[in-house]
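S., here's the first fold you wanted:
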Amino acid sequence: MGQYFDNDPNLKSEKFNIKYYVNNQELLFKSDRGVFSKRTVDFGTKTMLEYLLKQPLSGRGVDLGCGLGIIGITLSLFKDVTIDMVDINKRAVLLAKENAKQYNIDKSLILESDGLKALTQKNYDFILTNPPIRAGKATVYSFFTEAYEYLKTGGFLLVVIQKKQGAPSAKNKILELFGNCQIVDRKKGYHLLKAFKEV
């Protein structure tokens, strides 16, 4: 059986809508087989969005491993931000484009990309990721390394990860790369890790 970070052109399409509510406003996202958390908005994504929607947020960022585009699109609708969205899964990228179009989000780049490699600019204000744990530690840690490279000085990385799936070791890796890392929220075993690029 394939994983959500695999590209399987033979996997039959079966599109449907999933719902997410922000301030009692219903958002609909088109989903399909072969993508991450295809039937619902996963708890890690909800934890990240609930935190970010309460914070001051502006500038240009990246939704790294964007899936359907739920994080990038939701924040684009409720914050003064432009968020580029990248994912290695071709079907997820097509769905993210479709979802962005229905909400008239046209300033964001939405690209098929192995990590951040398809992006040309390297001065983002923030990078957000709910990383593909099942892809393995090397892939997840490469997200952190690339994020440091693509952030501007003063920009931040925000990661959501379950404690039982490696949050403590992820925090140590981010601390090694950035020189700082804080747990800014915890919910039901999910940790939100935040680090600033200081130099």
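And the second, which I think is the more interesting of the pair:
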Amino acid sequence: MQISVVIPCLNEEESLEPLGNKLVEVLSGILGGEGAFEIIFVDDGSTDSTAKRLAALKRVHSQVRVVRFRRNFGKAAALDAGFRVAGGRVIITMDADLQDDPEEIPRMLEALDQGYDVVSGWKSDRKDPLSKTLPSKLFNRTLAMLSGIKLHDYNCGFKAYRSEAVRELVLYGELHRYIPVLLYYRGFRITEIAVKHHPRRFGHSKYGFERYTRGLFDLLTVILLTRYATRPLHAFGGIGLILGTLGGSLLIYLTAMKLAYGVTLGDRPLLLMGILLVLVGIQLVSTGLLGEMLTRTQNEAHRPFALIDVPEEQLLALPPADVRRDAGPSAARASAPTNSALDELA
């Protein structure tokens, strides 16, 4: 199996047939044989006729596989399930609403062929209303600033992965939005290419305003588990040091006022604030130290990196270990990197 396409879907009954037919056409043109690719639709608890449409599509195309949830578990869970059953050496994800163009798949494969592990799509000319594009721009800029990874579009569902990259993922909640960040901090090479984006033809978006609240908390989780996973004292201790210094400064000021002018401190709100800031600062620093102790114990028991003797020719072919934008096409398609360890689950 060369390529697996994983497509989460929720109440997208009208889009499934044209999307499935187009994918079979494009992938057959690239790979030829029937056993060279598979298309995995993950029905995330749809309440319309999505299941029946998928059954009909499966009868027409032998490459189509279907995973169905009993109820809606969310896009992250749907992607995780698709990754677990995918048998391809390259795994492509895309949305089921026909806004992603399957014709862009060859360009993604060419970018993988340049040595990258993840190719993230960038909807540079996005065909969505301002109610979606403006929050998305704010989200992308905030995440770029906090994560240190410079991508235009983190949340684009159109991505290509080498199979070894998705084996490192455990997705839940809203973590599908942060896949590039999660993989980057595990050492995988990531690039970004601009892709075509089409207006939605059928149905409507399944995301409401509440996703921003959930996404905010998951963003904090991702930052803690990536940038500060091996140095928790830098996260908690830094904030604790600032608060403790501020509280200590207030107490020194009040002490000086008492000694110099004999002012009464018992009814001064600054006294309570100073004491509170010092206590909170001590607690945060202590939390950071406990985190450092746990991290050290974990690292001694389980090394968080792999030691691999890489042949010289592969070292020369690898791109720099950073994020590159707009990878250009190469002369050949993406080669099959390694065998997938997920085959046994397929």
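Why I say that: Confidence is low (pLDDT under 50) at residues 324-346. The longest strand covers residues 3-9.

Talk tomorrow,
H.
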